[in-house]
Amino acid sequence: MAFPVAISKYGGTNQRVLRALKSGRIPYTMGMVYHWMLRLKVGDWTGEADGSQTFDLNTLATTLKRPTFPADVEILDGTKCYLVTAFAGGTVNACTVTLGDAGAANGLLTSTSVFTGQALGWKQTTAATEFRQHYEAAFVPQIVLATTNGNTNALTAGELWVDIPFTKSPVVA
Question: Which of 163, 161, 77 is closest to 114 using CA atoms?
Fold first, then answer.
């Protein structure tokens, strides 16, 4: 999707406007806000014989026949997870999730309990290092599911939705 600003044939003020838009000095007031959502549910993936499991959400989205996270976007404030069903099973006595990417595993959501006894609903950590609006050229979201006193393959219940709001960045053609 191209941004609706034309560059003059002389490279005039529109070039400066586009640079200001890309740098963030001028907000993207004309951009649509999109939400990339994906469900992580016990049974949709194979648990590991380990107390921690990292999921590449683009790979999981492809497996579930869902769209992957787009490239060249501004990730907006407000990334969150919705806990539909608390995680539980076997000898596991605690379960947490973090959300981010390979560069910052907890950049969008720091360690948050999703185990039995936790309130269902939205989970959000505004202090996460990448929680604020920022540009990503090729973001590959990942979630880390960590269990205590049991492996992730012992989980028998749990459902979580990931919601990452974003807007498309301007494209100079």
Answer: 161
Q: CATH 2.60.120: does it fit domain 32-168?
A: yes
Question: What pTM does this model have?
Answer: 0.79
Per residue in 112-131, pLDDT tens? 999 999 999 999 998 888 88
Q: Is the dihedral of CA 81, 78, 163, 58 positive or negative?
A: negative
Q: How far apart are CA 100 and CA 79, in angstroms?
A: 10
143, 98 Cβ separation under 8 angstroms: yes
Contact yes or no for 5/170 (Cβ under 8 A): yes
16: which 2 tokens?
């400066």
Q: Of 45, 68, 65, which is closest to residue 55 (Cα–Cα)?
A: 45
